[in-house]
Amino acid sequence: xxxxxxxxxxxxxxxxxxxxxxxxxxxxxxxxxxxxxxxxxxxxxxxxxxxxxxxxxxxxxxxxxxxxxxxxxxxxxxxxxxxxxxxxxxxxxxxxxxxxxxxxxxxxxxxxxxxxxxxxxxxxxxxxxxxxxxxxxxxxxxxxxxxxxxxxxxxxxxxxxxxxxxxxxxxxxxxxxxxxxxxxxxxxxxxxxxxxxxxxxxxxxxxxxxxxxxxxxxxxxxxxxxxxxxxxxxxxxxxxxxxxxxxxxxxxxxxxxxxxxxxxxxxxxxxxxxxxxxxxxxxxxxxxxxxxxxxxxxxxxxxxxxxxxxxxxxxxxxxxxxxxxxxxxxxxxxxxxxxxxxxxxxxxxxxxxxxxxxxxxxxxxxxxxxxxxxxxxxxxxxxxxxxxxxxxxxxxxxxxxxxxxxxxxxxxxxxxxxxxxxxxxxxxxxxxxxxxxxxxxxxxxxxxxxxxxxxxxxxxxxxxxxxxxxxxxxxxxxxxxxxxxxxxxxxxxxxxxxxxxxxxxxxxxxxxxxxxxxxxxxxxxxxxxxxxxxxxxxxxxxxxxxxxxxxxxxxxxxxxxxxxxxxxxxxxxxxxxxxxxxxxxxxxxxxxxxxxxxxxxxxxxxxxxx
Length: 610
Ligand SMILES: Nc1ncnc2c1ncn2[C@@H]1O[C@H](COP(=O)(O)OP(=O)(O)OP(=O)(O)O)[C@@H](O)[C@H]1O
What we know:
The protein has helices at residues 4-8, 18-28, 30-60, 66-113, 124-168, 170-200, 202-216, 221-226, 230-282, 288-329, 391-398, 421-426, 442-447, 457-466, 470-474, 505-518, 536-550, 562-565, 585-591, 594-609; strands at residues 350-358, 368-376, 380-385, 406-411, 414-415, 428-431, 524-528, 554-558, 570-575, 578-583. It is of the alpha/beta class. It folds into 3 domains: 15-329, Up-down Bundle (ABC transporter transmembrane region fold), CATH 1.20.1560; 347-427 and 523-610, Rossmann fold (3-Layer(aba) Sandwich), CATH 3.40.50; 435-521, 3-Layer(aba) Sandwich (Rossmann fold), CATH 3.40.50.300. The strands form 2 sheets. It has a 6-stranded mixed sheet with strand order 6-7-8-3-9-10, with helices on both faces. A 4-stranded antiparallel sheet has the order 2-1-4-5, covered by helices on one side. Strand 4 and strand 5 (414-415) form a beta hairpin. The longest helix is centred in the middle third of the chain and has 53 residues, at 230-282. It starts with a helix and ends with a helix. It binds adenosine-5'-triphosphate (ATP). Adenosine-5'-triphosphate binds next to helix 11.
């Protein structure tokens, strides 16, 4: 038998979510919730009042007097209330949805932003949970309020009608009430199955989204067109959709079968009641008013019970999905965060990797196998090695996106595990290999390197000059205010200077370098392949500028172009997750090992061309 976690992706019972969901709704919109309670009271008592007033009218119809007109007046007023209330309720629910949606989103994103590392974002189950949490977080509180009000209001209506029905025929009243119990049980079971189904189809929905993004996105369009991948991806996307549709169809059919059975039971009870009431009226045991009251009560009880059961089932299903929201809110940090982190001062001595072992998960092979080396204060260390040797992984450990499984990385002797990740990152500037171009203006693309100085245009231009991209940005249609995008436009007219531009790969990389430079005087500068997309002249220029910028700063420079790192104070050669060579360019060349061989290969390529 499968565990609850396997079935619905969550271990908690739906009922434990009621209080947090209601609390979220009250916190988001207390006034709206109070108004909804009042409208629920009014709309649930109105049908009972209408049924009683109709009975009174029918019983007195033979004597037309002022009382009859007064009752008719009340009926008209009630009709008006019943006619307008649904619109008011709809509006109030809309308001509640918006308020809870905003608050839930705020809380969800705050919880995700609290995660210090990267591991959760690489975990498909976490991503599925995040998607369901995003869907349910905003809706569930409002659905639970709706369910609660339906429960209270429904109880009022049902109580009123059942009382009336009991006066006329207590057996029938009991039968109507009893017929609702299997309906409730069946609907609850169905809602649990639906929640489990939504968790089960999560991976297929994620894959479908991935294929559709490839088909519609700009990122893959060149390869998709050139390799003729559209049909292949389209087919994969439809296959995933057909798979999820199949699951949904099976669920809908199951629901249909249950609804037909429940409807038949309910119609049987109503039909039996009708036969009895007609027979009793024929035998003159019931008045016309009694008949009208019986029919209204029977219909009222059945309708109210039906909608009550429906609301409970919907709220139950939403509550099951709401557990994902609660689990994301309560998610544990993916790297251990100490309660009282060691204060991290400005780097004074250096950073030391000591016998660092790391793998991305126990299912993955070791990426680093006992790497040891030092980045001394004020010096530049060049890190080189074959593809997949673990260079970028070392950078990620240095930024504490993950912790080593064995060994340690120390900052002036303080183990990074003892530090606050935010404080550590505040002391680091980096240009990553897989740098970002944000859908923001050119100035903002540089300014986000240090958000507190986002509006300092002078500093932004200085950083752009350092990265050799100032003239290009100045020449854009709106200079530094031009959007760096091809997708989002400021205006309808895509030819206007308001529209965005798409920079070339090398230009984008220089903007990323400017962002790293703009971050300012941090203790450690990491440059992971900062010039991989640049032409030879630009590469030479940027390395000279970065060399100037690095002077006296502690930095880690990664590059496959060994000419760019040979000037580093020392070089570390990584192979298969181990440091295999260390030293200056000259000493490594003399050593005649991996570095000397790689350097020789690159140099010979240039010599032949020369
Ligand atoms: N998020 C991840 N999850 C699992 N494995 C990963 C992840 N990132 C990297 N790896 C694996 O770790 C190994 C080292 O990757 P890394 O990116 O550190 O190498 P690198 O030396 O920077 O390579 P390159 O020169 O190609 O940039 C590779 O085998 C890679 O497949």
